[in-house]
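Hey,
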Amino acid sequence: MTVSISGPGEPITLDIAAPIASAQDLLPVRVPTTRRYLMCPPTYFTVEYAINPWMDPTRPTSTTLAVEQWTALRETYERLGHQVEVIEPVPGLPDMVFSANSGTVIDGRVLGSRFRAAQRSAEADHFRRWFLGAGYKSVVMPTAVNEAEGDFTWTGSLLLAGTGFRTDPHAHGEAQEVLGVPVVSLQLVDPRFYHLDVALFMLDDQSPTPLVAYYPEAFSPGSQQVLRRLFPDAVIANDADAVCLGLNAVSDGKHVVMPLEATNLAEQVARRGFEPVFVDISELRKSGGGPKCCTMELRG
């Protein structure tokens, strides 16, 4: 069978070799849920320092192209029926575009961020003030280093929490107390995948059995065992998927917005009944970011 995938330019068709032999082989019916996102335009985007292996200040960057790619991402969400809120960018904060790093929102409770890198520390207060201005009543700023949805992934029932390069493990306990949800810690071991959201993402957080995709080699052996126990039916990404930041994707339960280079991962999620939607994030990837990095979900 073939599956057509939308994206920039001409539609892409993937050939799924396995035939549908019986009713048991039919693709599951995936139902999207409307989401609300907070994004920040990359008006001042550049790479002027290096705080992860993707960043090289000597490599040319184009703010204009970054804005074009970000705009296409925002328009993709809106075309899929989602609501996008926008925070104003601030001069001198080129990574503010990566809004996922500045807050975790569950049931209307907000846990802000505390960045490890001094270059990004000022971002946290701009987002704190946005939340207060937007009417959020419970906004708590962390005491431990906490890079928010960069290292926190909500499954619908528990919070997966990464550590190893950015977020302090003490932030995991703080998140549990502030957000009132159970937390499972995961150890990251590959510096290329310095945040949880470049190594794992939720495909479906609404079903009784959540479904994730992840790259095992990004995690310690013990964390790999935890993921296998929690998600025995997970989609397993390969190295090619991981190094194009294919796992820095955003799913609404049906549509999976992902980097256009992640074709193997796209084939796998299509086989599970999801619809991949490709976007070009080549310029934003120069800072180590992709669709999810640019997208904070506002839950409740």
